[in-house]
Design brief:
Elements lengths: L7 H4 L6 H9 L28 E8 L6 E8 L16 E7 L8 E7 L9 E5 L5 E5 L4 E2 L5 E8 L6 H5 L17 E10 L7 E10 L2 E5 L4 H5 L13 H8 L5 H20 L9 H12 L4 E4 L16 H9 L26
Antiparallel strand pairs: 1-2, 2-9, 3-4, 3-10, 4-5, 5-6, 7-8, 8-9, 10-11, 10-12
Helix pairs in contact: 6-7
């Protein structure tokens, strides 16, 4: 059944690609006006930014083929080949950070570096981390690691799926179905599979970071920087845009101190919009505080011994759109009627669709 909700233009921003979809709809200059995990901050966005540093999504899940292994994935270069390059930055640092004891501080770091691309676009790759995570190779090939793990950095089908035309029409599930705008879109990805023991105990926190000459992006859960950090879609356009850079350059251990107020303010606004005449709002404050506790720090938490998906880590097939729609609309909207990627994910490493 069709669900036509005028406020969806506001709610959409929570879904990890707000700035990107606005840019595609009204032109590239809009990219500097809003932020998201795709194209989320000054210095990362086009024109003038560098998509090679722009983290689009982060995934962490137990390997479906080897239960004692964990898989970490970082995607960059949103709309690779269109808005972003198809190679990795040769002087930037690409990192997975691991919190092993729940204090929101990095206890372990996995660093991936790239050379300049050759005439065919192939780059040398070097990875180094704890527990024997060490190896060298080239983009486009599986790189065996010292501890038995494997790494691949390559161009893939973007695993993110969502019905953009339905959003632009403010009409999800028209005719009982949806259409994935990201079908056939490309993304660059770093895929790492290692023994879970090299990352720490079963319960860990994971986030990704890129940085080069002061330009930094970081991400854990989907879309935290999207909607809550000024200039966010619910703040006046005069809000200080550098707050997005402040978030990206900040440390997760300080997220509650520095950004909780933004979480609470935006959730309060959304919950007020969702409340109809005569609704009992007495439980809203407690729900908002609980969500603020969950959303920060911006770390993807996972029990690597469990095969469960989001919010236990994030698997490629997890429909985070549906989960987040239900969350921020208090159950008013629970699906965009796009439930899977356009191309089936692989059942084995590197898991992403070619």
């Amino acid at each position: 059944m069709s669900k036509t909700i005028p406020l969806m233009r506001l709610w959409w921003a929570f879904i990890a690609i707000g700035a990107l979809v606005v840019a595609l709809a009204v032109g590239l200059p809009a990219l500097t006006a809003r932020g998201a995990d795709h194209l989320d901050a000054p210095g990362l966005t086009s024109p003038g930014g560098d998509g090679r540093l722009d983290i689009a999504d982060v995934y962490a899940f137990r390997s479906p083929t080897t239960q004692t292994n964990a898989v970490l994935i970082m995607t960059v270069n949103p709309l690779a080949g269109v808005l972003s390059p198809t190679t990795f930055h040769p002087k930037a640092k690409y990192e997975f950070l691991i919190d092993t004891n729940g204090n929101a501080k990095e206890d372990k770091k996995i660093k991936i570096e790239f050379s300049k691309p050759d005439k065919d676009g192939v780059q040398k790759v070097k990875v180094k981390g704890p527990g024997g995570i060490k190896g060298k190779g080239k983009t486009g090939e599986d790189i065996d690691l010292k501890n038995g793990g494997v790494l691949r950095a390559d161009l893939f089908d973007d695993p993110f799926f969502f019905d953009l035309p339905a959003f632009l029409a403010v009409d999800f599930c028209s005719g009982g179905s949806g259409s994935d705008f990201f079908a056939s879109r490309k993304i660059s990805a770093i895929v790492l599979e290692v023994p879970s023991s090299s990352l720490g105990p079963d319960d860990i926190g994971v986030w990704a970071r890129t940085h080069f000459k002061g330009r930094v992006d970081r991400m854990g859960r989907p879309a935290i920087n999207t909607v809550f950090i000024p200039n966010n879609p619910f703040e006046p356009v005069s809000s200080e845009p550098s707050q997005k850079n402040a978030f990206n350059t900040g440390k997760p251990k300080n997220d509650q101190r520095d950004f909780r107020a933004e979480i609470v303010d935006t959730l309060t606004f959304l919950f007020t919009l969702n409340d109809g005449a005569g609704d009992d709002t007495s439980d809203d404050a407690a729900a908002i505080q609980g969500l603020a506790d969950f959303l920060l720090p911006d770390i993807l938490t996972i029990d690597t011994s469990s095969s469960a998906g989001f919010p236990n880590g994030r698997q490629l097939a997890d429909d985070v759109i549906d989960a987040e729609l239900g969350l921020i609309t208090e159950g008013l909207i629970t699906t965009d009627c796009v439930d899977a990627n356009d191309v089936a994910f692989l059942g084995a490493f590197p898991y992403l669709a070619p």
